[in-house]
Records
---
Amino acid sequence: MPYVRVALPVPIPQVFDYIAEDAGETDIGRCVRVPFGRGEKSGLIVALSAAAEVDAARLKPVLHIQREVPPLPQDWLGLVDFVARYYHAPLGEVVALALPPGLRRADGVSGEDEDPLLVVSDAGWSALQAVRRDSKALTLLRELAATGAPMRRSVVRELPQGAAVGDALRRGWLAPAPAAGGRERMAAAPALTAEQSAVIGEVSAAPPGFRAWLLQGVTGSGKTEVYLRLAQQVLAGGGQVLMLVPEIALTPQLERRVAQRFPAANVVSLHSALAAGARSRGFVQALTGHADIVLGTRLAVFAPLPRLGLILVDEEHDASYKQQEGVRYSARDVAVWRARQHGVSVVLGSATPSLESWHHARGGRYAPLALNQRAVASAMPAVRCIDTRRLRLDEGLSPALQAAVAARLERGEQSLVFLNRRGYAPVLSCPSCGWISRCPHCSANLVVHLADRRLRCHHCGCDGPIPHACPSCGDQDIRPFGRGTQRIEARLAELFPRARVLRVDRDAARTRAQWESLLATIADGGADILVGTQMMAKGHDFPQLTLVGVIGADASLHAADFRAPERLFQQLMQVGGRAGRGVLPGEVLIQTEYPAHPLYQHLARHDFDAFARMALQERRAAGFPPFTHQAMLRADAPALDDAVEFLRHARRLAEERAPAGLRLYDPVPMRLTRLARRERAQLLVEADHRGPLQTFLADWVALLYRQRTARELRWQIDVDPLDV
Ligand SMILES: Nc1ncnc2c1ncn2[C@@H]1O[C@H](COP(=O)(O)OP(=O)(O)OP(=O)(O)O)[C@@H](O)[C@H]1O
Ligand SMILES: [Zn+2]
C-alpha cells in the first residue's frame, strides 16, 4: 500500500505519514488535506515512504490530493528544504508560508490567465476598413492596429480609449492572440545613459551561470531602467524574471510601469494584500511557466519558476525583506541562494546597500556595479545641517526650514518634511503628578492621535479615548509631549494657510486605495507640503519635489542597536534622494544638534562608501556582523521569569555541546520587554564562521523541541537577526 510523507504546518520538526491508495511519484509536490488530531490540516506531499518505515496500523488515509494543478517541482522542494534547514524552522511551516493559502488548503484553484493577450481579429480589420460612424471602440481598435502587436488586456485598458475594450471584445473585433511570442517586445523606452549602458553591458557580457551583482546606484540614477533592460534580455531568451520590492506600497506603480513596458508579457504580482484567489492564480501561473515576470514582496521569493532566468532585488538593504515573525527568513538572502540553485544572475540594487552586501562586493563575493550620476537631474541635492542648538524652534520647525518651505511655495514647488514618528505626540502626560500614558499591555507609551482623538499603542494596537483629565490626579491640564507627523502637519497648516498640506504615513494610507490616491495627488501637483514618515522615503519619484527637511533624526544617533547608524544613514540618504530628481535642483536640510557628527558629514557629501568604511571598521572592532555570525533565541511568556528560566536552561544545554569558538551570551530581557501582555527575553549566540554555527544550531534546536516548557511559554530561533 502506498504511503505519503506530508509536511504539515505544526511547530514540530517532523513530517507525517499517511496512507494514499492511489498515490505515486507524480504526487510528490502536491497539496493534500489530511486528518490531524481531531480536525484536519492541509500540507504538502514531500516524499513517498516505503512500507518498511511506517507503522501502517496507526496510519490514517489522506482526505484529498489537489491534482488540478501540476505538482511543485523538485527544485522548489529543494528551496523550502533549504529555508527550513537554514532558519531551523519546521518544513511544514516553511511550506505553509511559501504557498498561497488557497492552494495549500487544496481547494480548487484556477491558473487561468485572466489577462489575455489580445490582437485585432479579422472582424476587427474589416470593421476598420468599413466606413462607419466613429466610436470609442473603433478608435481603440485603430490604435491597436497601429501598434501592430498583441497587448495584454490590462495594458489595453490603460490606453486613452481603453474603457472600450469590453465593447471591442463583445463585437469580436479583438481576439486572444494565437501563440504568445515576442514577450520581450518593449514599448517606448528612454535612451540609456552612458552609465546605464555600461552596467547592462557588463552584466550581459558575463558568462552564463550564477553570479550575484551589487548595483550601487545613487538615488535617481535610473536603477529601474537597468532592471527593465536586463529583464528584456532574459525574456528574449525565453526566461522568467523574478523582481522583488520591499513594500506592497511600491508595487502598484512598478506593476504599471513593468506591464506598460512589456505589453505582451504576462506580469504577475504576488504579495500578501492580494485576495486569496488572485494570489493562487498568480502562483500557479508562475508554476506552469505562463508568467513571464513575477513582481512581488518578500513572499514572492517562493514563486515556483521553471524558466527562471534572472532575479532582481530592488532596495536590497530594506529591513522588510526579513520576516520578523514565524519563519524569520531574509528574502534577499534566499533570493541569492535561489539564483545559485538555478545558475542565474541575481542583481541586488540600492543607493544605500546593506553593509553586509557592500562588504561582500568589496571582498569579491558579489560583483560590484555602479551608477554614480542621476539619470535626469544634473546634480545630487545640496545637503546641509541646520544647527538647532541655539535656535528657537516653532513646534520643532527651525526658521531656516520654514523659510526654505516658503521659498518653494513661492516657486510652486513641493516640499517634504520628514519625521519618522506617526501620531500627534508620542505621549500624553500630566505636569502636576507626572502621570504618563502607558500601554497597559506593553512596555511602551500610548501615542496621542488627535486626528481621531485616540490614545493608541503602536506595538500592540490597543487604543482608547483621550481622557479629559489626568486619570491619576484629576488635573485637567494634561498635555501631549513631543511631536509626531500630525502635530507637524497641523503647525505647517497654520504657518502656511494657503498651502495644501498632505500627511503621508500609515494612518493616512491604511488601505492600498488610500495610498494610491495620496500618491496620485502628489504626482498631480495637488499638494504643496508633504509631511511624511519612512513611507515617503522609498523609491518615489516626484519631479516637482525640491526640498526635503528632516526633523527628529538625532534620536536614532545614540540608539543602542548596533545597526541603528546604518539604518539612519540609509533612511536619510533615501529620503534626501527624493529631492531634485527632475530638472529642478534639490536641497536637503537636516535639523540637528550634532552638525559635526561624521554620519551627517558623510551624508552631506553623498559619500555612502566613506560611511560604510567607517561603520564597518566599528563593527570589525566590536566583533559584529558581517565579521561574525549570529543567531538569537527568543522566549516569551506571561511572566518574565519563565522566559528567562527557559533561556538559562537552553544555555546550559548549549554549553555541553558548543564547539570551540562559539560564544553564548547571557539571557537578557528584550528592549521592549513587554509586548501585548507577554514578557520577552533573548539569548544571543555568535560564531566567527557560519558553518560551525549552523551545525551547532541544528543540534541545539532539535534538542530544544524536545524540552518540556512552562505553560504558555513560546520560543523562536532567529538566524541572522536584524534586531539585536
Ligand atoms: N535613461 C534614462 N533617460 C531618461 N530618464 C531616465 C533614464 N533612466 C531613468 N530615468 C528617469 O530617472 C528617474 C529616476 O529613475 P529611478 O526611479 O529608476 O531611479 P532609482 O535609481 O531607482 O532611484 P532611487 O534609488 O532613488 O529609487 C525616473 O524618473 C526615470 O524615469
Ligand atoms: Zn501595547
Note: The mean pLDDT is 92.
---
Amino acid sequence: MSEGGPVLRVAVLGCGSVGSQVVRLLQEQAEDLAARVGAPVELAGVAVRRIDAPREVEVPPGLLTTDAAGLVARDDVDLVVEVIGGIEPARSLILSALEHGASVVTANKALLAEDGPTLFEAAEKAGRDLYYEAAVAGAIPILRPLRESLAGDRVTRVLGIVNGTTNFILDKMDSTGAGFTESLEEAQELGYAEADPTADVEGFDAAAKAAILASLAFHTRVTASDVYREGIADVTAADVASAADIGSVVKLLAIAELNDDAVSVRVHPAMIPRSHPLASVREAYNAVFVESQAAGQLMFYGPGAGGAPTASAVLGDLVTVARNHLAGSRGVGESAYAQRAVLPMGETRTRYHVAIDVDDRAGVLATVAMAFSEHGVSIQTVRQEGRGADAQLVVVSHEATDAQLSATVEQLRGMEIVREVTSVMRVEGRDE
Ligand SMILES: NC(=O)c1ccc[n+]([C@@H]2O[C@H](COP(=O)([O-])OP(=O)(O)OC[C@H]3O[C@@H](n4cnc5c(N)ncnc54)[C@H](O)[C@@H]3O)[C@@H](O)[C@H]2O)c1
Ligand SMILES: N[C@@H](CCO)C(=O)O
Ligand code: NA
C-alpha cells in the first residue's frame, strides 16, 4: 500500500466470543484484507466492559476502552463492528456510529428483528452501509444471497434450521431415543446450550432470524412480534418416535411463506420427511432451504454459530462495507417496498400429524374421521397400531388452516371414545 494513502479504521464493540475472533482475524489477515479492500484496515479501538477481563485475543495496548459511545463518535473511526448483542446500548451505539459517518457491521439478530427499520432508515439517511450477514445462521451466506443473488427471482418459501442448540437436542432425541430434558443437559455439558437456554429452547432466537429472513426474502418488514413461535420444550420422545414411524424427523423450523400477497412467518417444531434435504442437518449445524419461482430449490448449509465461524461472516461484510466506504458509495440497502400483511397463525395452511389412543371397537375410526371432516380437514393417511385397549390411530391430514386443524384436535380431546391425544405436530416439507 502506498504511504499516505487512505486507511480504514475499525472500532470493534464487544470482545466476547465473536468480537475476540473478529479482532484476531483483523490482525492475522491484515495483509490480505488490505489487498482485498484496496487500503489497510486498521484497528482503531476495542470497546469492552472491563479492561482487565480475560479474553481470547491479545489486543494491542492502548486500544482497549470502556467508553464505547466515545469510540463510535471519534473522527478517525470509519467502520464499526457491533458484537455486544442485546437491544441497548447496541442500538444507540449503532445509531451514533451512523450519525458520525461510520458504516456498520453487526451480528445482532435480536436488535434487527425488534427495530431493524429504525436502523435501516438511519443508515439510508447517513448514506452509510449497515450489513448483518452474521445475524442469521452464523457463517452461512444466506442474507446476501437473498438480498442480492436472488433479487431477480421470486422467493416463495424459506424453511430454515437456524438454531444450533435446538437442532442438537432434537438430533440427540432422534438418534438415541432420549427425552428432551436429558438431551438438553447433554447439550449444556458440551457447551452448545447456555446455562439459561430459554432464548434457544423457546424459539426466540429462531423467531428473530425468521423475521430477518422473511423481510429480505419478501421485500417487506417483519419484526419478531409478527412471528408465531413455539419452542421444543414440549417435544416428547413419543413425538420423535411417531415421526420415525412415518419416515420423518422432528426439527425446529423457521418458516417464511408467501401466500398470495401476504406472508406467514412462524417458528415451531415440525415433522419433515427423512428424504427432505433439511432432515440431513445433524448436530448443531444450520441450514436454510429456499424455494423460488425460477431457481427452484436451493439449500445453504454450514456452521450457524461459534466465535470464528460467525467472525467469518462479520469479516466478509467488513470487506464489502470497507470497499464501499472507500469508494464513497453504499451497498444494496433494504428493499421493503412490498409492505405485505402478516397472516395470523390461524389462517396459515399446514398439515398435522395426530396420534390418538382409542378403544378398538366398531365405528371408532369413522367417528374420528368425522371430527376431521366436520372442520373441513381432509385426511391423507390413517394407520392403526395395537389392538383392544392399546389401540392407537395415527392420522396425517392434508393441508388445512391451522385454526381448522387445532379445532379438530380440540374436538378429539373432548370425545368419549378418545382416551388421549398423545401427539400433535405440524408436518412440513413435501416429500419431493
Ligand atoms: N456466539 C455466536 O455463535 C453468535 C452467532 C451469531 C450471532 N451472534 C451475535 O453476536 C453478538 C455477540 O455475541 P457473543 O456470542 O460474542 O456474545 P458474548 O457475550 O460472548 O460477547 C459480548 C461482549 O460484549 C461485552 N459488552 C457488553 N456490554 C458492553 C458495552 N457496553 N461495551 C463494551 N462491551 C460490552 C461483554 O462483556 C461481552 O464480552 C450477539 O448479537 C449475538 O447474537 C453470536
Ligand atoms: N444460540 C444460537 C447461536 C447464535 O445464533 C444457536 O444455538 O444457534
Ligand atoms: Na449468515
Note: The pocket of L-homoserine (ligand 2) is lined by residues 163-165, 200, 205, 304-305 (CB under 6 Å).
